[in-house]
Specification:
The protein is an alpha+beta fold. It has four helices and seven strands. The chain has one domain: Gamma-glutamyl cyclotransferase-like (Hypothetical upf0131 protein ytfp, Roll), CATH 3.10.490.10. This is Gamma-glutamylcyclotransferase.
Length: about 190
C-alpha cells in the first residue's frame, strides 16, 4: 500500500514504512484551508490552519508517497485513521502518484487524506496574510504551526525546486513579513 502525504507527513510520517518517493498527484492544489484543534491547534483557538487538497483539474501537488508492507499496513492505517480521519476530519481517496524519478514506472495508486468543505473543521478561503496571522498564534501537541508552514516550504524548496506552490510560498512570505513586527513592539533592554 502506498500513502501520499502533502503536509506534515512529508517530514513526520509517524509510522514505519518500507520506502518513500518524492513526486506529485494531479488534479489537486494544496491549501491551508483546514482547521486543526489537536496537532497544530487547540479547542480554544478558532482558526488554526493546516493543509488540505482542493480539486483543481489542471493543478498538481507535490509530496511524498510511503510504501507500507506486511504488518506495517495495519499499523500505519490505524495510526493515520486516528490522526487524519478521527482527529483531523479528513476523508480518504485513491489517487495516481507520479514519482519524481526520471526512470519511474507507471503512476502508483496511493491513499490520500483530504478534508472537504462539508467537514466541521473546514476553514475555507482566506487571504495569505490572514492565514499567516492565524498560523503565528496556533500551536498544539505536535508543535507550533509556524514549524508546519516552514518545514513544508523547505521540503518544496529542497526536494521539488522545479514545482510552484504560490499559495504556500505567499503564506510563508506573509508570515516572515509579520514576524519582525511582533518583536518591534517589545522594548529592548537598553530602552528600559
Amino acid at each position: 500500500v502506498w500513502i501520499f502525504g502533502y503536509g506534515s507527513l512529508v517530514w513526520r510520517p509517524g509510522f514505519e514504512f518500507t520506502s518513500r518517493k518524492v513526486g506529485f498527484i494531479r488534479g489537486y492544489s494544496r491549501r491551508f484551508w483546514q482547521g486543526d484543534t489537536f496537532h497544530r491547534g487547540s479547542e480554544r483557538m478558532i482558526q488554526h490552519p493546516i493543509t488540505t487538497l482542493l480539486f483543481h483539474f489542471q493543478a498538481c501537488t507535490w509530496g511524498v508517497a510511503y510504501e507500507v508492507r506486511g504488518e506495517q499496513i495495519a499499523a500505519s492505517l490505524e495510526y493515520l485513521n486516528m490522526r487524519e480521519a478521527v482527529l483531523g476530519g479528513y476523508d480518504t481517496k485513491l489517487v495516481k502518484f507520479h514519482p519524481q524519478e526520471k526512470d519511474a514506472e507507471e503512476p502508483i495508486l496511493a491513499l490520500v487524506y483530504i478534508a472537504t468543505p462539508q467537514n466541521p473543521s473546514y476553514l475555507g478561503p482566506a487571504s495569505e496574510e490572514d492565514i499567516a496571522a492565524q498560523i503565528i498564534v496556533s500551536s498544539g501537541c505536535a508543535g507550533h504551526n509556524i514549524e508546519y508552514l516552514l518545514r513544508l516550504a523547505d521540503f518544496m524548496r529542497y526536494f521539488c525546486p522545479q514545482a510552484e506552490d504560490k499559495h504556500l510560498f505567499s503564506i510563508e512570505e506573509a508570515l516572515i513579513s509579520i514576524l519582525p513586527c511582533l518583536y518591534c513592539t517589545e522594548e529592548s533592554p537598553e530602552e528600559t
